[in-house]
Fold this protein.
Amino acid sequence: MRWSGTRGILMLLLFLFVGALLGGILADLLGSVSFSGIMPYLVRQYTLLDLQNIHLNLLILEIDFGIRFAPNLLSVIGMIIAVWVFRRI
């Protein structure tokens, strides 16, 4: 495992992205099932970053975009598992 090179960092970012994505998909699947107890806290999204409706007019090109980062606890758990798997490889 090589931490200093760009390949190691890019692989870590890929693992983190896939872990968060799989955790989010699992949260969406489990969110439709009515469980009681801890499940509502695992599937609830917590907004950390929300930039909405940024408009950029360059006279020949107009761009509208926004960024929203709202992970849920299952996504965070997925990222933790992804880091654990990355360190084991």
Strands lie at 49-57, 62-69.
